[in-house]
Design a protein that fits this description.
Layout: H1 2-26, H2 36-47, E1 53-54, E2 59-66, E3 82-96, E4 104-115, E5 124-138, E6 147-159, E7 169-170, E8 173-174, E9 181-193, E10 196-205, H3 210-213, H4 218-222, E11 225-233, E12 236-245, E13 250-262, E14 265-274, E15 286-294
Antiparallel strand pairs: 1-3, 2-3, 2-15, 3-4, 4-5, 5-6, 6-9, 7-8, 9-10, 10-11, 11-12, 12-13, 13-14, 14-15
Length: about 300
């Protein structure tokens, strides 16, 4: 019942906000403004936007079932293995064709939250924050059937936003460190064969500073290599991702399916199996099935 009211509220709120905003601006009178500069300024204000684009998939998954319960990670809380999840991911182009290299430069921000919707008080179990800066260079490749389309070079930070509690004692007992974070860089080559896209990624941590000391073995589970397939079949979009560390034989698999329902709303199904579903559980293996809605691809 909670999730029904949540979805109903989101739909009504989005419609109401859009109607109120557009309706209010449509009543603004420009014809009788005498000062040309003020009139131009008001005209820009009426048509202005923040020019943000979707980056990763934006989704709301009301139901997710994991094959084991989530650990409390040092907090006196019993978490359920059934929860909701949501992700917001946006990017903004800031520069283009710098030094005549035809690259597009972006700043991006993604936030992924895991919501214990079906437990008492419905807390957010974990939220991961992922700001990035990257440049994408287009590649004009017509030589092979699997054509290279772009090269992406990125710097990123990934954190769960928790304080470092490694030196904190409660009732004489040392707390488990709640902070998990890493600075890293990665390179992605995108290739295309008809309706199939292939992304090949190499990633590595930056330095050995405080960010990596929160979780010094994270690359054993996150891995240095990632491959992702995106296949477009009629109206459906299917993806499959695999990443891992060849030395430790640890990593993760993820498969998704999306189908358009109405406008920019899609049915979205996700299956995850492996390590680092969230940062707090980066070294814990689990399998999870989630279903809900996506609002971008």
């Amino acid at each position: 019942m909670r999730i029904f009211f949540l979805l109903l509220f989101l739909l009504v709120q989005c419609y109401a906000d859009s109607y109120e905003y557009k309706g209010a601006k449509s009543k603004i009178d420009l014809l009788h403004i005498k000062n040309d500069e003020a009139k131009e300024s008001m005209k820009k204000w009426l048509t202005s936007g923040i020019a943000l684009e979707a980056y990763k998939v934006n989704y709301l998954l009301p139901y997710g079932y994991a094959n084991k319960k989530y650990l409390s990670s040092g907090r006196p809380v019993n978490f359920s293995n059934v929860e909701a999840a949501l992700q917001i991911s946006l990017k903004r182009k800031i520069l283009k064709n710098l030094f005549g290299l035809h690259g597009s430069y972006y700043l991006a921000y993604s936030q992924k939250s895991f919501w214990q919707l079906y437990t008492y008080s419905s807390p957010f179990r974990e939220t991961n924050y992922n700001p990035e800066g990257f440049v994408v260079f287009p590649v004009d490749d017509n030589k092979y059937s699997m054509k290279i389309r772009s090269l992406k070079f990125a710097f990123a930070h990934l954190s769960n936003g928790q304080p470092n509690t490694s030196n904190v004692y409660v009732d004489g007992k040392k707390m488990k460190n709640l902070s998990k974070s890493i600075n890293y860089t990665y390179i992605t080559m995108r290739m295309q064969y008809n309706t199939l896209l292939l992304d090949l990624t190499l990633q590595a941590p930056l330095g050995t500073g405080a960010n990596l000391s929160d979780n010094p073995d994270i690359m054993d589970y996150l891995g240095y290599n990632k491959i992702k397939f995106t296949y477009f079949y009629k109206k459906s979009i299917l993806t499959f991702m695999a990443r891992g560390n060849f030395d430790t034989q640890k990593g993760a698999l993820r498969a998704t399916y999306s189908y358009p329902l109405q406008d920019e709303t899609n049915l979205y199904i996700k299956i995850f199996s492996g390590y680092e579903e969230s940062l707090i559980d980066y070294n814990r293996n689990l399998t999870k099935f989630s279903v809900g809605f996506s609002f971008s691809h």
